[in-house]
Write a structure and sequence with these properties.
Distance between the termini: 21 Å
Structural class: alpha/beta
Strand order of the largest sheet: 3-2-1-4
Strand content: 15-25%
Low-confidence stretches: 88-98
Number of strands: 4
Oligomer: single chain
Shape: globular
Helix content: 10-25%
Number of helices: 2
């Protein structure tokens, strides 16, 4: 049993439709600690190489937010190849912020 806290950073490499990332974000307080004294709290990251699965994960996130009436700022869903590239988070929410998978505290690698 993993004890995931607000101080952890969770990566799901091969996140598919995002079900594990979304569950971790919804059922833990990952990302509740603000980074660099900003509004940035992304700490639950899914990386998927298949575009069609990544697209479904975005739809699933939107559905979760609608069903729970909550905006999950701690979720980042990335379309990319985690095996050949360093995974950097450069999103609308973060812009300046970059992380490496090696900086994480919990990693799920699923093929």
């Amino acid at each position: 049993k993993a004890e995931i806290t607000e101080h952890d950073t969770f990566y799901d490499l091969g996140s598919g439709i995002g079900n594990v990332v979304l569950q971790v974000a919804a059922q833990t307080n990952v990302g509740e600690i603000r980074l660099f004294d900003s509004d940035l709290s992304i700490r639950c990251i899914g990386v998927e190489i298949r575009r069609e699965l990544h697209s479904i994960s975005l739809e699933m996130r939107d559905l979760l937010e609608k069903e729970t009436d909550r905006k999950y700022k701690n979720i980042e869903l990335i379309h990319g190849n985690a095996l050949t590239n360093k995974v950097h988070i450069l999103s609308q929410a973060s812009g300046f912020f970059s992380r490496k998978v090696s900086d994480s505290s919990v990693v799920l690698f699923n093929n």
